[in-house]
Amino acid sequence: MQVTWVEHAEYDESQVHQLYRPLISSGMGFGAQRWIATLQRQCECLAILMSSNVPSRDHTAITTSGRRSMLKLAQRMTGNFCAGVCASTVHKWNKLNAGNVDEDVRVMTRKSVDDPGEPPGIVLSAATSVWLPVSPQRLFDFLRNERLRSEWDILSNGGPMQEMAHIAKGQDHGNCVSLLRASAMNASQSSMLILQETCIDAAGSLVVYAPVDTPAMHVVMNGGDSAYVALLPSGFAIVPDGPQDDQWRPNYS
After folding, report:
1. Pfam families from the entry (predicted)?
2. Going by C-beta distance under 8 Å and a sequence separation of 6 or more, which residues neighbour residue 79?
3. Has residue 69 been placed in a domain?
4. 243 CB-side CA count, 13 A
5. Whole domain around residue 33: which residue ranges?
6. For residue 163, is it within any domain?
């Protein structure tokens, strides 16, 4: 069976940030390569979600239903992250104009009321874009490495994190959901748990994470409802800066 998909996108190039113009003009921004790569990754994920045996490696007793609950929680976390960065119309965001904020940083706020999936109050979203002189793969590997977490994440308490659970979401080992534990700052303090999802395909990659309540996470790992776990995610979206070499191009053979 052959499927033909035609996608049209119209945009004002003058409104596109300079960092993203090579990506858009190369076709990777809105082109079919991006959609096909994303669809392939999502199909692999759905196949695992529907499977009776969810592959994982962990040091905790997580049931099969618990792994599914963790995957659903991670899916909601990543969705909320993308909705905040992209100013999704699902929520009403208000742009915050502050004189002491750099013009390349976008800050928005909204109210969270009666949503069991996030803490009540004012939700703040801050986003910016930077160019780094390293390959997307190298940056992705650095950010998802729990042993190097202390080099950029204040939640690590200045030390390496331990991966307590690892659930694969696709053929690439970079597509997974992990449960990380940060070292306690002192003997009387309990260690912090962080839920993390990493995704990678030919169009780019994501590293999204959020601190999670330990008792609530234990409920999820036993197959409990993840809809009531409050999350405020942070993360990184990594995209190539234009036409890439073969390792970043999807294989259509």
Report:
1. PDF2_C, START
2. none
3. yes
4. 2
5. 17-90+134-248
6. yes
The amino acid at 11: Y
Q: Are 123 and 232 in contact (CB under 8 A)?
A: yes
pLDDT digits (tens, 9 = 90+) for 125-150: 888 888 888 899 999 999 999 999 99
| Distance between CA atoms of residues 128 and 86, nearest Å | 11
Question: Looking at the domain assignment, is residue 123 inside a domain?
Answer: no
DSSP H helix total and E strand total for the chain = 5, 9
Tokens coding 17 = 């940030």
Among residues 84, 88, 90, 56, which one has the least CA distance to residue 70?
Answer: 56
d(CA 212, CA 192): 8
With respect to residue 146, please indicate whether it lies within any of the assigned structural domains: yes
* 198 Cβ contact list (under 8 Å, min separation 6): 140, 144, 174, 175, 176, 178, 205, 206, 207, 208
How many structural domains are present in the chain? 1
Q: Among candidates 118, 94, 119, 121, which has minimal Cα distance to 107? A: 94
| One-letter identity of residue 59 | H
The type of residue at 41 is: R
Q: Tokens for 238, please give them.
A: 């990594």
